[in-house]
């Protein structure tokens, strides 16, 4: 039970005492010189978990995605992605600004491109057309409520891309949530992709850092791009040490976050004026719609009232659209906190009955 129940994001998790201890005692060196033993240990541990040759510690998921895009494309190419994905919506247009690629967003139903959509989106050889340089997928899918796609779905998309000679990048910011939810090893999801980013600083609870994993050649190119972006960190073992604790001790407990998200979603589904697609609640994200009876359709007012009403009750939630709220469960929110959040939402919506 915590004083404040912060459901705005799993990025808000605080490092555990074990992480702080590991950070304090970390053996370090200059990582631009590739002389930091703790960074090297984390990178090879991550690569091992994902069945890849090599890993690269980057500052954030955003940097990991950008490094992956730039390392695998040339200026003027096109990258194919789902229209609701993080790279297209929340990465400040970095692929366009830094990568000089144009994005080809495709509308999907669950956040995952189908093989047929990828086949159709890959440009044929034609003097008028940009060359397709990369296909990007996201698992779990943030804006679709933490939904998972299966390793088999990824394999099917990758097969189409590979047949056209186009590499595939997986934004696996929350990849371990998918692995835990589906009960599959993380490497099953990454086997067929050329590059993958995953985050240490979300549900895994580390304070800083993400990893890019792939072939030795991809990671060598990514390392140069990371340096260009200012991401060549020096005694980064201080960060990596917390990441090692995260990978070793924080993966299996994600199941608890998933149970808490389910508890919250089940309760929200019964509240007047709120609706949630329960089938989409597979991991630690709950997105619900707010439609207060009597309000004009699309009105933002009830959403604002709900965010403010929760805050007044020490529960922090985040709106991701005029009528949509996102709650994310994580290690710093326990079942009692979820009961608190349910009580707050229940009190606010109790007066909403038409
Ligand atoms: N997502 C953040 C915000 O940027 C929206 C959040 O609170 O969920 N890929 C995915 C799928 C993500 O959800 C995020 C972060 C990133 C990449 C970027 O990671 P960071 O924040 O480390 O740059």
Description:
- The chain is α/β, with parallel strands linked by helices.
- It has 2 domains: 5-10 and 253-349, Aspartate Aminotransferase, domain 1; 17-249, Aspartate Aminotransferase, domain 2.
- Helix content is 41%, strand content 16%.
- The chain has 14 helices and 13 strands.
- The protein has helices at residues 17-24, 37-50, 61-72, 86-89, 94-97, 115-121, 151-163, 175-182, 186-190, 216-228, 237-249, 254-268, 301-312, 335-350, and strands at 5-6, 54-58, 78-82, 102-106, 132-138, 168-171, 195-199, 210-214, 274-276, 285-290, 315-316, 318-321, 324-328.
- A 7-stranded mixed sheet has the order 2-8-7-6-5-3-4, sandwiched between helices. Strands 9-10-13-12 form a 4-stranded antiparallel sheet.
- Helix 1 packs antiparallel against helix 11, helix 3 crosses helix 10 and helix 13 crosses helix 14 (335-350).
- The longest helix is centred in the last third of the chain and has 16 residues, at 335-350.
- It is globular and about 60 Å long.
- The model has no long low-confidence stretch (mean pLDDT 97).
């Amino acid at each position: 039970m915590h004083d404040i129940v912060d459901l705005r994001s799993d990025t808000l998790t605080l490092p555990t005492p074990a992480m702080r201890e590991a950070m304090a005692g970390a053996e370090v060196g200059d990582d631009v010189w590739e002389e930091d033993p703790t960074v090297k240990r984390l990178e090879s541990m991550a690569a091992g978990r994902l069945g890849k040759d090599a890993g690269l510690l980057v500052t954030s998921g955003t940097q990991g995605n950008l490094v992956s895009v730039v390392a695998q494309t040339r200026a003027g190419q096109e990258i194919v992605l789902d229209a609701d994905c993080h790279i297209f919506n929340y990465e400040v247009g970095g692929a366009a600004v830094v990568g000089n690629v144009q994005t080809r967003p495709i509308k999907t139903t669950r956040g995952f491109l189908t093989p047929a959509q990828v086949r159709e989106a890959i440009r044929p050889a034609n003097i008028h057309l940009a060359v397709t340089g990369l296909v990007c997928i996201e698992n779990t899918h943030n804006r679709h409520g933490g939904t998972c796609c299966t390793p088999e779905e990824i394999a099917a998309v990758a097969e189409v891309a590979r047949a056209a000679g186009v590499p595939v990048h997986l934004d696996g910011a929350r990849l371990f949530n998918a692995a835990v939810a589906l009960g599959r090893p993380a490497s099953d999801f990454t086997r067929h992709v050329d590059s993958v980013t995953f985050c240490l600083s979300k549900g895994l609870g580390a304070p800083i850092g993400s990893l890019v994993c792939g072939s030795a050649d991809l990671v060598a190119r990514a390392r140069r791009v990371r340096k260009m972006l200012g991401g060549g960190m020096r005694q980064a073992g201080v960060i990596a040490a917390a990441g090692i604790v995260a990978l070793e001790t924080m993966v299996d407990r994600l199941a608890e976050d998933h149970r808490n998200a389910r508890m919250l979603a089940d309760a929200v589904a019964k509240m007047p004026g709120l609706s949630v697609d329960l089938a989409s609640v597979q991991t630690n994200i709950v997105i619900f719609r707010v439609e207060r009876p009597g309000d004009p359709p699309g009105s933002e007012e009830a959403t604002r009232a709900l965010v403010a009403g929760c805050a007044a009750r020490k529960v922090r939630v985040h709106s991701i659209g005029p009528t949509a709220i996102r709650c994310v469960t994580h290690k710093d929110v326990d079942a009692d906190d979820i009961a608190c959040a349910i009580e707050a939402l229940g009190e606010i919506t109790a007066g909403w009955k038409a």
